[in-house]
Amino acid sequence: MPQLVLPIFPQEATHITAELSFEKRDGWVTYFHGMLPVFRHSEDDIQSFRMITSQLCVTGSAKQVEIIKAFGASPCSVKRAVKLYREKGPASCFCRDDHAAPPSSRRQSSPKPRKS
Length: 116
What we know:
Strand order of the largest sheet: 1-2-3-4
Strand content: 15-25%
Low-confidence stretches: 99-110
Structural class: alpha+beta
Distance between the termini: 44 Å
Order of helices and strands: EEEEHHH
């Protein structure tokens, strides 16, 4: 089973692009456009991390490769998050993935009991 690679949040401000950067301070990660803070989440909130980085990619503010380099995220996880964001919107980052569910919970409907 694949292992989750957590993003890296250095203490100092780190550039994602020439205009975008992020900074980790006191357990919070803050994203900046220039000097203006635009989003904030706790450093252990992976769902919000996926949402904001996917949004940056979908809106054209950052490229997937820039997210991968800035955070040390795996290419597959970034591509998967961006694809889900494009298909289902921001809510996709906060829902449980069908692939993570055990096969028994993915059944479409339960079998109907036979009449005797």
